[in-house]
Amino acid sequence: MQKWKAASLTAVAGAIALMGVTAPEGHANAAGASAGALSAEVVTTLNKMKATHDLTPADRAVLRKHPEVAAQILDPASATVSETVRPVTLRGITCKTYNRYIAYSTILGAKAFDWHHEIYICPKGAKGVHRVSRRQYVANRDANFYLRTPQQNDEVGQDTQWYSSAYTGVVENCVIHYGCLGEVYPYSKFVVNGGTGHVDYYFRKG
Asked: Is the model's pTM score more than 0.90?
């Protein structure tokens, strides 16, 4: 069973948004917001999930009776990994973009968000790797999920034979009339061998 990570008010207050999307006004105080609009069993279940950082079968059963709430909550077990590789010509050199992403759904099976790690690399001399750009971002994001400052942002080996790029993202799940429930930490790393052109990929779904 994959587990939630506790939500951090510091992370909320210091949040960054992608593509101009930010948390609602006053969202940093959402964890203390009134839960009066939610039923007692939902509040009890959400409190338990926030305290244990876990989503049990019993929790699922309760939340599925309240689809308007379940539609806002991430199902960590839903994560799947995909990739795209695209050749790009830059000043006569054949380069490539590698985009690996982890797709997440809600408890009801709807799209929650896709977390991406993308690198754009070109050959450098006989064996070197030149990184043109790199980034982490979310796409197809439902309104209850917020990309925060990455926990890890590492890059090694620019213009050398061995290049690596790694991110540990932070995506926070917040529920209307309740507040922020928890965070997931998807991890992704590329390792490129400039001599052979081989790319290894490592990941953790969070």
From this structure: no
